[in-house]
Structure formats: structure tokens, C-alpha cells
């Protein structure tokens, strides 16, 4: 039944972007000056998880590269590369193909990119709210030719601790806001994936619609649900996905997506997650105290509150409840009556 499993991979860039024409146009408009060999406008994409931000950014750059041959392009995931040097190293590798020694200083990295970049180039800064040293936005501003697309969940998280020199630059950037998908858009996204990835007649519209409904506007969740349902049906030797598998498949997919997200957490987020695995339902002060014990190089309460806790919430790993003026944190999807799994 599964003809091409890669179309269900998270980093698969689909040939058609469903229901995001306005967003695509706004991003391609921002990039348009590059066609005239001029630096583009920076832009920001904001929105919840699984609404196509990364996909739209990459698809807009793909479109640009179809128009203008060989525009230098870099993709940085700031969740993994969160220091100034890590970002610049990634950009230097992708954009100008220069591998500098690991010991290269910030100045050397900037000089190298500046010297080798000949004309405009584009950088996607994904999960830019996870940057620990956002001065790098200022560095990028100073490098002639570079424009960037920054992706984050909420504008407030991003602007919380930006340097004034940086904010004065980014206040001119385009902002594109994404909302969650409706059921029709998700069903259409699923239907295209099914056509590409599964055998003919492997799934009917009604089943896709049910997966879409259970995925609550999150395309990543929906695609994972379809993949798990196809796998379950294959194991039973079926050539089509029966409706009875949908609920279990979506629940399993939710666990799989969550597990994958947990594996990407940085040490602070992981320590928080582990503290809550030990003792669920802590208020912020208690959570911070235990985190501070558990982490060898703890960040401030403010950084925890403005950066790491919102990230865990955004990826649906924790739930927050207000309890007499305090925020109380719970793990999502963990059965607290059973022994807690170690992750
Ligand atoms: N409009 C779309 N058309 C086709 N596929 C889409 C569309 N939007 C999202 N997808 C698919 O859904 C999945 C999640 O999308 P994407 O990674 O772009 O979400 P995101 O908004 O960046 O989420 P996060 O904030 O969690 O990183 C990807 O596999 C992507 O291919
Ligand atoms: Mg993304």
C-alpha cells in the first residue's frame, strides 16, 4: 500500500502548497527585489505549530531560485544552532560554501561571508525565537546582500529580549501571520500526500476528512496520522485504510510526533520536561527551583518563562493552567496513574 514513504517525512517539500496563496505571495513579494539583483526585505512568519511556516518559506525560496538561477541560500534551524557563531558557520557553509575551522572567530566568519557573497542571498532563520544570541540579526544586517526570513511562533516571544539596535532594524520587516488550517485545507493536503505516497484507492475522502478533523488544524499531525493509518492497514494485509483504524492511528501519531519533538529539546527544555516527569503539576516557582537543581548551567527564570516554557507549550508537550494567580504546568499525553516512561 505504501508506494513512497518519503512523502510523509517532515522535511518533504510538496510540489503544491495548498491554501496558502496569500502567504506565498507575501513572501515572494518580499524576495522579489533579488530578481533585480537588489537586497530583499527581511520578513517574519509567525504562527502555531504545523501551519506551514517552514514549508512556505522553503517553497518561496524554491520559486525564487526557479526565476533567478543560483541565488545563494542558507537554511538555519536556530533551535539546533542557537549561538551567534553556530548561525554564522551554517550560513558560511550554505551560502558561500566556505568551511572555516571550528575555531574561527565571529569576525572571521563575518569577513568570510562578506568577502565571498557576490550579490544578494537569502537565509531562512527557522525557530528564530530559540536564538540565544540574537545579536547575530544585527550581524546579518551589516553583511551587504543578505536578507532573511525569520520564523517564530509568536511575535511577543521574539521581541521580548531583543537588543534595541536589532529591533530598530526588524521593525521594517514584513510580517506574515499564519492561522491554523480548516478541515478542508487539511483534507486537501492529505489527499495530495495519499496520491503521491500510497497506492491507488488506498484511502477514501471520508477517512481523510476524519483524520483531518482529529488533527485540529495541524498539518504535521494530520500527515503523521495518515502515515500511521497506512502502516496499520498494511500490517493487516489490507490494500485500503478502513475507517475503524483512524482513531487509534491519530492517537499513535500524536505520540510519535511528541516523541520526535522531545528528542529535539535543548538541555534546558529537557531538564524542565524531566522535572515534570518526576512531579507533574508544579507552579512556576517550584518548577524553576527544581530545574535550577537539575541543570548544571541554568538560565534565568525570565528566560525560562519567555523562551523555554512557551516552546514546550507551543509543541504541545505541556499544558498550562491558571491556579490562584500562578501558572501550573502539566505534561501532555502522560498517564499519571501509570509508571512514567523515561525519555
Ligand atoms: N499548505 C501546505 N501544503 C502542503 N503541505 C503542507 C502545507 N502546510 C504544511 N504542510 C505539511 O505539513 C507539515 C508541517 O508543516 P511545517 O513544517 O511547514 O509547519 P510549521 O508551521 O513550520 O510548524 P512548526 O512551528 O511546528 O515548525 C510538513 O510536512 C508540510 O509538508
Ligand atoms: Mg517549522
TrEMBL record:
Coiled coil: none annotated. InterPro entries: AAA+_ATPase, AAA_22, Cdc6_lid, ORC1/CDC6, Orc1/Cdc6_arc, P-loop_NTPase. Keywords: ATP-binding, DNA replication, Nucleotide-binding. It comes from the Archaea. SUPFAM superfamilies: P-loop containing nucleoside triphosphate hydrolases. Residues 39-177 form the AAA+ ATPase domain. Belongs to the CDC6/cdc18 family. This is Orc1/cdc6 family replication initiation protein.
